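Risk mitigation, structural track. In case the binding assays with fe (iii) ion fail to produce interpretable data, a predicted complex structure has been prepared as a fallback.
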Amino acid sequence: NIGELTTNVGTPDDPCGTWRDAAVLVEGERIAWVGSAADARTLRLGRDTGFGAHEMRPKAADPPQTAQSGHLEVVDAGGRAVIPGFVDSHTHLVFAGDRADEFEARMTGTPYAAGGIRRTVAATRDASDDALRRRLRAFVDELHAQGTTTFEIKTGYGLTVADEERLARLAAEVTNEVTFLGAHVVPQEYAERRDDYVELVCGAMLRACAPHSRWVDVFCEKGAFTPEESRRVLAAGIAHGLEARVHGNQLGPGEGVRLAVAMDAASVDHCTYLDDADVAALAASDTVATLLPGVEFSTRQPYPDARRLLDAGVTVAIASDCNPGSSFTSSMPLMIALAVREMGMTPAEAVWAATAGGARALRRDDVGAIAPGLRADLVLLDAPTRTHLAYRPGVPLVERVWKDGAAL
Ligand code: NIG
Ligand code: FE
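Fallback model:
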């Protein structure tokens, strides 16, 4: 018996599509049925071996056919909450080294500067494939343990053709959502000839990375890439069959958001400094605003105003931005707690943003919700409601995680 099930198959009044006393049936990698616990008990009578792990399906639908194997594992949620696996649509998980010293300096007043990226680039270039792979796999375990079942990973700490290619290749070993971010910063060796670097990103580097990547991203910000450079990079990626996403409006106002909308990017991420025209452009677009509150937490900057975006009708996602500089956490529960406490979101909006919102930001319709036909990516919380994710911050409430129907 699932005490509170968040399906995200919702209504305007309840975007989380909440069911009480529910059940979900999983067959193979997919959700087969969603319904009430009482209906699940009836179904169970028709079976040899009991009813499935989690059962579900909209009311009037026919009961599912019992799996041929006849083997059904039953998990009793014991009245606790089940939510879709988290979709973390923004991470930078392939890197070496650590920048705890920068964090420490920030906590005594030194502001965050994107220049620290070059330190991670140096450490990453020096690391072997195996060292990067070991670290990456440890991060994947860390994500899974915290309920994240879908995640995007960006390159951007290589910044040579060969290094970017290997970061994209390593990322592709653990996710389909790989983003080419050769335009993260201009590396030191190109500092005096940035045009040549943009040319490289749009040419040889893109050609090397595109086979491993779905997305192209650019850090459109003072100190990184200008709007015009950013537009060139995105256009080159799109011409190569990649889809666009943008880092924008993180450190100050700028054109990142409007560029993202103009290029029909799936998402523009950070969105900390927005003017009314940015909000209006987002509201009229298919571009998701992905907020990354781990960054403001870790850099002591003002949080983005999620309430303003939601009230304007913008689709909002939240993600971890896990990286060694601006947000070294992979915890989606922490993002939810921060979104609620610091950004004006309700607990339901924050949980939606961390699941269905992330799926929208990745233009995925097979994850981020619990409904028949979707991937069976589920999280059982050791709590009676999803609200506890924000109400009990810092407490590990993720009890069990299933990805593609398999317990992790
Ligand atoms: O998303 N904004 C650009 N890139 C990262 C920070 C990377 C770093 O500091 O190493 C971000 O915040
Ligand atoms: Fe980022």
